[in-house]
Amino acid sequence: MLTVGVDVGGTSVRASVVDPRGAVLDTLRVPTPDTGEELDSAIADVVRGLALRHPVAAVGLAVAGFVSEDRRVVRFAPHLAWRHVAVADRIAARVELPVVLEHDANAAAIAEQRFGAAAGARVAALVALGTGIGGALVIDGEVFRGAYGVAPELGHLRLVPDGRPCPCGKRGCWERYCSGTALVSTVRELQERGDGTAGPLLDESTPLTGVRVARAAEEGDPLARRAMRELARWLGEGLALVADVYDPEVVVIAGGVSGSAHLFLGEARKHYAKALTGAGHRPLARIAVAKRGDDAGMVGAATLAREHVVAHQVTGR
Ligand SMILES: [Zn+2]
What we know:
Elements: E1 2-8, E2 12-18, E3 24-31, H1 36-53, E4 56-63, E5 66-67, E6 74-76, E7 83-85, H2 87-95, E8 99-103, H3 104-115, E9 123-129, E10 133-139, E11 142-143, H4 180-192, H5 210-218, H6 222-246, E12 250-254, H7 265-275, E13 286-289, H8 296-312
Parallel strand pairs: 1-4, 4-8, 9-12, 12-13
Antiparallel strand pairs: 1-2, 2-3, 5-6, 6-7, 9-10, 10-11
Helix pairs in contact: 1-2, 3-8, 4-5, 4-6, 5-6, 6-7
The structure holds zinc ion.
Protein name: Glucokinase
Family: Belongs to the ROK (NagC/XylR) family.
GO molecular function, one term: ATP binding
């Protein structure tokens, strides 16, 4: 059975036909429109385009935002026009196929647990390091959502009391210390303290981004390397908290920053092992880099759509 997975992102809508082994067979992409109505149409158009070329049975939507506990409604998505919109039903009516909706980090975690770095793991966590932290938990093969569909907000665990302010309103959240954004903050703090060097990070002609810091670290810039070591420390400390609560078999590190994992993962593992309760007397979770990359959200959403059809024996085409 083939299904379509759609990654509804802030800049583009990407849709792929995915087979039962998680392989992507065909992809269409359009820019993300500004209004909710146009967004519905854009999604319906790419799904119909793929359905003309392949016999697809259902659609999964991966959305960066809050999804209702029944997974039919997008409550709020900071980079999309939807506000309390019954997205799943609206798209289903347009494309005449069953539609399931999922938070993008959850969808990515499903892709990794079914076909990627956490394949077969009974308890797996996903920590996606990008602008912030996207977190997800898969327990006994199912996404763990909590009672009201908002768990787990791993990125906003408070690691540093009275630490860096966070847009969520709190201070010292994990993602303020462990993300692409955090790399920039750390470099700025080090520079303000006079720890700066004459390295390429002092070039003010282009904006400083996490990617630029990572690239400078690759090239051996001492300041960028220090920022990476800070990130490694906080990644390890945060993962120890996650492991104390969920005791995962594997933690998958995903997101843009994971491309530089060789620069911080070894050190993060040491901090993790040190900060874990009962360290030395319990098995350590494997910490692995994501394997499904950029298509994880689409593949996971398509997989959830297929599993939904099988579970409900909905007859598609
Ligand atoms: Zn926060």
